Amino acid sequence: MKPFFILLSLLASVSMFGKPKKSPTAPLRVEWRGTLKMDSAYHNPMLDFIYTADPTAVEYQGRLYVYGTNDQQQHDETRPDSANTYERINTLAMISTNDMVNWTFHGLIPTKKLAPWIIASWAPTICSRVEEDGKTHFYLYFSNSGFGTGVLTATSPVGPWKSPLEKSIVDAKTPGVGMDVCFDPGVAIDDDGTGWLVFGGAQSRLARLGKDMLSFDSPFVPLPAQHHFEANELNFIGGRMVYTYNLDWQPKDDWKMGGPTPSICSMAYMLPEGDPLKTESWKYQHHYMRNPGEDGFEYCNNHTHLHKYQGKWYVFGHTMDLKRNKGIKGGFRNIVVENIEVDESVPSIAMSHYTRQGVSQTHALNPFERQEMETTFATVGIRFLPTETPGNMLAATDSVGAIKVAGVDFSKKVRQLILFAQGKGQLDVRLDSPEGELIATTLIDNQSISAFATSLKKSPKGKHDLVFLLSGETLRIDGWQMK
C-alpha cells in the first residue's frame, strides 16, 4: 500500500488536514473558447499543451505508456513559424493512460544528458521483458538523428533511464549494415523472448538482437520495401512478425509489389512467408493508414504504431491539428490515436483514418482513487513541472489555468475534495466545462506538498467531466481525490 493511502486511512476528520485561512472572494475565470479540446468533444490530439510526434507504446501493470518525439523543444528553441527541422530535439516525451482519453504526462527523457554523444533524438520504439532478476526491463531505441539508432534502458516505464552504450547500437559505420541512414527503429520481442530490430530510411534492414538486447546476433537483412521512406515498426500478431513502414512522397506509377497501389506517404505493411532473415520471404500486403492530408488535415510525414490494449487494436500516429488551432505556421506535430481493425488469424490490417474524434473512453475515471493532476483530457494555460520522482509532475499556471478530466463516475455521494498541493493560490472545481456548475472552491496556503481537504458545495451524481481552475504563481498541485 502506498504511504499516502496509509495516511488517508488514518485521517479520521477534516480537522487533521490543512484548512484555508479564508474563503475565496470571487470565482476563477479563464479564456477557453475556441481551444481544440476544452471547447469540443474531440479526443485528439492526446495532449493539447505540448507538440509530440512519432509514437510508440508499451503496456505495464495495466497502463499503456506512450513515448514520442518532443517537437515542443524545437518549437521553443526556434521561431515558432519556422520549419520543424528537428535538429534541436534531444528529449523524448512520456505519457500514459488506462482509459484512452485521459492522459498522464510523465515529463521528458533527457536523451542528450544521458547520452552526450548523440546528435539528436527522434522516433522512439520500446519493448519490455521480465529478466532473471525478476524485474521488468524496458529497452527504448531512438533515432540518433538520421545517422544511427541509440538505446536507453530502465526498470520502470518512466525511468530513471540510462544509456548502457557509449555509442549508437547501429549506425552508418557499423560493419555489414550497408547503408547511410540507420534511423527510425522498430523493435519487437517474439514468444521466445528474442528481440528483433528494424531500421532505415529509403531502404531498411532487419536483424535479430542478442540476448542482452544491446548487440546483434544475425546479419543485417535488406527488406524489399518498394518506395520505402521511414517510420519502421515491428509487431508480432497471431504469432507472425509484421513489418510496417512509411511510403515515400513519389507517385506509385511503377508499383510492382502487388495489391492495391498505395497513396503518397501512407503506411503499409509486409509479412514474411518463411524465415524473416531471408529477404525473399517478405511479401507486401497493402497500406492501412493514409497520410493525414488525405483525411482533411495538413500533409505531413506519417509515422504510426499498432498496439493491442484491453482487447482492442489501436493505431497511434500524428497530425498537425494542434499547431493549426494555435495559429502556428511551423511544422509541429501532435500524437493522436484511432481505432483499427486487425484480423490476428491472417494477420491482416484494415484501413483506418485520422480523425479529430479519436477513440472512446474504455471505462470511467474513479474519483475515489487518487488521481494525478498531470492526468488531463484538455488544458488551458497550464504547465507541468518535474519533481525528484521520475515520471511525477506538478501542475502550475502563470495566470489562471484549467485542467479538464473526462468521464468521471460519481457512483456515490461526495463530501470532500482532497488536494495534494503546496504554495499559495485558489482552486475551483466545475462540472463539464470551465463555466459549468461550481461544486468546490478553496484557497490553498501550504509550505510543502501535503493533503488538503475542502468540503464540496454539492455532490455530483452520475457521470461528468470535471474542470479544475487554478490560480497562483507559487501554487503547485500534485494530485486530487474525492471522499
Molecular structure report:
There is one protein chain. This protein has 483 residues and is mainly beta. Helix content is 5%, strand content 42%. It contains four helices and 31 strands. It has helices at 3-10, 71-77, 111-114, 321-325, and strands at 53-60, 63-69, 92-97, 103-109, 121-130, 136-144, 148-154, 170-171, 186-189, 195-199, 204-208, 221-223, 228-237, 240-247, 267-272, 282-289, 305-309, 312-319, 334-339, 342-343, 348-349, 371-372, 375-376, 378-380, 383-386, 393-396, 400-410, 416-431, 438-455, 462-471, 476-482. Strands 22, 24, 27, 28, 29, 30 and 31 form a seven-stranded antiparallel beta sheet that branches. β9 (186-189) and β10 form a beta hairpin. The protein is globular. Mean pLDDT is 94; it is low at 1-20.
Q: How are the SSEs ordered, and which strands pair?
A:
Layout: H1 3-10, E1 53-60, E2 63-69, H2 71-77, E3 92-97, E4 103-109, H3 111-114, E5 121-130, E6 136-144, E7 148-154, E8 170-171, E9 186-189, E10 195-199, E11 204-208, E12 221-223, E13 228-237, E14 240-247, E15 267-272, E16 282-289, E17 305-309, E18 312-319, H4 321-325, E19 334-339, E20 342-343, E21 348-349, E22 371-372, E23 375-376, E24 378-380, E25 383-386, E26 393-396, E27 400-410, E28 416-431, E29 438-455, E30 462-471, E31 476-482
Antiparallel strand pairs: 1-2, 2-3, 3-4, 4-23, 5-6, 6-7, 7-8, 9-10, 10-11, 11-12, 13-14, 14-15, 15-16, 17-18, 18-19, 20-21, 22-31, 24-27, 25-26, 27-30, 28-29, 28-30, 28-31
